[in-house]
Task: structure prediction
Amino acid sequence: MKTISAVPHLSKGLFLILIITLFGTGCKKNTLPPDPEPPAYQSYVSHKYIATYSVDMIKNMYSTLQLAYPDAAPLTEKVQYGVNVYKVVYKTPFQGDDVNASGLLCVPLAGKGSFSMISFQNGTNTAHADAPTVNLSNPLFQYLHATASMGYIMLIPDYLGFGESEQMFHPYLHKKSTVASIENLVVAVSEMIADELITVKWNNDLYLMGYSQGGWSTLSTTYNINQVTSLPFKVKAAVCGAGPYSLSVVQNFMFEGITYPKPVYMAYSGISYHELGLITNPLTDYFNEPYADNLPSYFNGQYNGDEIDAMLNDTVAVLINPSFLNGINTDPVYEDFRNAMADNSISGWNTSIPIHLYHGTADVYVPNTTSEQVYQEFLDAGAGDNVTYFPLEGLDHTTAAVPTILNGLLWFNQLEGK
Result:
């Protein structure tokens, strides 16, 4: 009988070396490659699903809208798809640094096909709670969400100072940062689509639409995309409603009467330009006390425009420092303010794309003369029939908003052959 020899005795140290050699070598052979680095995005940061609209829900919404606005009937007929709504967080530059901004993305649940994109820029907002990504129950925003059901990719930027960036002040009527925040939302969504983070295709056609502050930001962005930047997309058409295109025209209109019914507008640009450093004089050079001291606390994101109106005064001479009131156009003390207004206004140019301008003739907040002036500038620059001005007879700043949007959507559908 053969006997099996015992394993020779190993010292404790030699045994450990053997184990480490065997298992260490084995682990190296089975080591998985490191996870690939996530894609480096120019603008996109993240997105979050918010809600879904069914086709029936959207048809019911538009049927209700038709009761007040019969012109909405053709929109109801174009409803084809359900809609998913997302919040998108993206990077945009502000005063030399990138900040995280946000906006809404609404996509048609189509499964196939590629679609044009619309970016809607909303009007003046002062309350964090009223940002598009926050106030999802706002009826106007809901109708805009539902626009995607007609076969559009719909965007609604929050603007800086709202949504993801509510910790900072809102740079109201500051053209450079506003335009960048709109453009970079489009870039972020295009990156999402290219990386198939959402199930939708973009055909690279971009429409812009906005009202009030949004009319101004839409026209400013249209100019920048089509005339200045080298972005891989261009604006196909734009609808601009009741925008303060010439800030000096609007400012003089505010100051020419004994009262002005929307004092929040008188104060907003002043506090914004002061925060931006575009004007460096103390606020008391522009506003009377106690308003000058209290303005920063009024514009802290906790109050809406009506609430701020109630805390201010609609008698111009009570709110505005008399030196500013009388010297806005001539006094050297206010040269910085005049420069800020000039730098952040937008003039007409020789555009080759179609632009529709809308303005209520009874607007006592933003005078329709600013639309008339920019329209004439377009004509003088050689734009010709590419730009059309639609005065909305008898409508004011509030009542002209929905007709502007409805007419704009109907026009976009026409351009799309829908």
About this structure: The beta strands are 44-53, 83-94, 97-108, 114-121, 152-157, 201-211, 234-241, 355-360, 387-392.
